[in-house]
Write a structure and sequence with these properties.
The chain has about 210 residues and is an all-alpha fold. The chain is about 65% helix and about 0% strand. The radius of gyration is 24 Å and the shape is rod-shaped.
Amino acid sequence: KLCPDDETLLLMKTHDRILQGDFGSCDFRLCMQYLKDESLDDNFRKKLIDFIMEDKSGRRFEHSDIQAVCRYSDMMNGEQMSAFTEILIHRKYYTEAAGFLSGLSWESVDDGLLLELAEALARYPENETSIELMNLLTYLFQKGILDDFLLRYLARNCQGKKELIQSLYTVCRDRNLNCDELKLSLLLNLLMEEETDMDMLQEVFVSVV
């Protein structure tokens, strides 16, 4: 175990090496300990973030590490934000990961991880009115990767345009999934159109009544 003087000396050497761009010889845990020091100047903290986020697996992150990186996430670039969001999902920090979605290009995050995040969020009743979750589900639906659970969830809560509702209805119908709420929404949309698809209108009407 390091005595205080040894630890202080190592911190000073780590500080010097990072400022000089020599990240390879720095101890990850020591850097993470340094990151949590609120007295650091922003330039040095940004260099620490850059070094810490070189480990895109997140396997070395402890709970307090994740909290610290979340606190200083505004210092990350887009690639680092995407990588950290994937780390959060891997580690099942779903609420924290959801908080990063609005500032990300979803194409930069693995589809499988986005699907895992969406399924986790959909299991919390308070998220049924979440616009962000509905947007994520719509994005995944348009990529054709929603499972039956999430399709039913989207169908039950969808407030999108008629084209989306009709496309979603068609997929649910072909998979034999119950989507009564969606049928009613589609029926109202079809009835309000001046030039409507009569075949679709009749199909949906018959299925409702």
